[in-house]
Amino acid sequence: MRIRTATTAATLLAVVVAPLTLTAPLAHAADAAAPYDFNGDGYRDLAIGAPAATVGGKSKAGAVSVVYGGSTGPGTSKYKLLTQNTSGVPGGAEAGDAFGTALTSADLNTDGYADLVVGAPGEDTAIDTNDGTVVIVWGSASGLSGARTLTNDGSDDTDRYGQALTAGDFDGDGDQDVAVGGTGKFNLRLTDGPFAKTGDFAGGSGTALAYAPQPFDASYGVEYLSAGDIQNDGTDSLVIHGRAKGTDDALTAVGNGDYSYWLEYIPGGHVSSVADVNGDGNADVVVGNHRETSADASGALGGEVTVVYGQSVTDGVDDSTGKEVTYTQATSGVPGTAKSGDAFGTGVSLGDVNNDGYADLVVGAPGESSAAGAVTVLYGSASGLTTTGATVLSQSTSGVPGSSESGDRFGARVLLADTTKDARADLTVTAPGENSGDGAVWWLKSATASGAKSFGPSAVGVSTSGAPGFGAVLGG
């Protein structure tokens, strides 16, 4: 059940803080790059986070490896390892920084190359322990190079800044903006685009979701963010995940434009993806909740995913019909059986696998088969998501490298993105528990086992010391 709540004027006094420093807008470039195309060659690249990686002997300092795409998909022959010890990246690797906890991408300075935004919520500052930091790494013709810190003007009221990230045009001005989640009083911050490599930022705002109509618990803060044009009006809505105040139950809300003035509450979950499932021009929201009802009232036996269909209405998500459809492994046509601990819905991603104009859904269930893990693919259609032709992939599937082993957690993170420029989304799956916590990544062209590839952290420069959990975070 959804509840739409307008924020009262009194609440707004607690919700909105003063804007960040304003400067004159920058000129627009002719053509901005697609997200995750860091070298402007038209192929989407993969960014793989290992926030538990050891760097320079510092445990859990964190690392991100970017594997560049090509006509045959991402290959380990061309990659870029990023840590806080990388030349040009601000700061230095320290124990517990957790660099790579969150990732997002957009062409922030509209120069034709996508940029990468990396969160390190465990970063200590002169002001506070676990204050957190966010770094923008700039794209170029040769790939990622050079970086700057995305300033947190509210560090006194925000901790773990950078534990959640997404990018989008949230104010409808044509520039990409960056949303950052953290914990504490002001746990959601937006920085407006356009961005530059030096100088002041263009402006922004902060929100105290602890004072929202349905309050978010400040100790958990904003744990996950996604974005998309739900209203089909050229402005991206923000999907915000946290926990209900005083509990650890999932709480999910959608905000659009002046999001501080109202929030649309949709079924609670811990992750989401936004794309057009039924081809009506409006982006739809898929929310994943892997938890059991005994742990979270919003959960289900073995976990669930819910599709909330968008439409062109004033407040974004479909209020006229309340069309929300929930899928579990007990749903007719969904492969498998719903069992406690499957964690179906831990990872979700939308993309058009078969080039039919409808976004398809991949769902990760890393708890399946004693945490060996599996993923399920459901297809979009004019009538919405359907179970017709649904498929399951795991390391037990013929053609998928490796073998299913307890604790691999295959499907912890999933991604559908066209990495070969053939207009079909390819599937990337991670298993951060592979090889006793080293982690690994699989790439499956058009979400099939044909030509599947796999690689681990050592192939792309990430140390295997101390169980890095390579693939705990995934962007592309």
Keywords:
single chain, 476 residues, mainly beta, five-stranded antiparallel beta sheet, four-stranded antiparallel beta sheet, 3 helices, 29 strands, 3% helix, Int_alpha_beta-p, FG-GAP, repeat
In terms of topology, how is this protein built?
Elements: E1 3-6, H1 9-15, E2 46-50, E3 63-67, E4 79-82, E5 102-106, E6 115-120, E7 133-137, E8 147-149, E9 159-168, E10 177-183, E11 188-191, E12 204-207, E13 224-228, E14 237-243, E15 250-256, E16 262-266, E17 271-275, E18 284-289, E19 304-308, E20 324-327, E21 347-351, E22 360-365, H2 368-371, E23 374-379, E24 386-393, E25 413-417, E26 426-430, H3 434-437, E27 441-444, E28 453-455, E29 473-475
Keywords: Glycoprotein, Hydrolase, Repeat, Signal
InterPro entries: FG-GAP (IPR013517), Int_alpha_beta-p (IPR013519), Integrin_alpha (IPR000413), Integrin_alpha_N (IPR028994)
Organism: Streptomyces graminofaciens
If you had to describe this structure to a student in words, what would you say it looks like?
By secondary structure, the chain is mainly β. It is 3% helix and 32% strand. The chain has helices spanning 9-15, 368-371, 434-437, and strands at residues 3-6, 46-50, 63-67, 79-82, 102-106, 115-120, 133-137, 147-149, 159-168, 177-183, 188-191, 204-207, 224-228, 237-243, 250-256, 262-266, 271-275, 284-289, 304-308, 324-327, 347-351, 360-365, 374-379, 386-393, 413-417, 426-430, 441-444, 453-455, 473-475. The strands form seven sheets. Strands 1-16-15-14-13 form a five-stranded antiparallel sheet, with no helix packed on it. A four-stranded antiparallel sheet has the order 4-3-2-29, with no helix packed on it. The radius of gyration is 20 Å and the shape is globular. The relative contact order is 0.13.
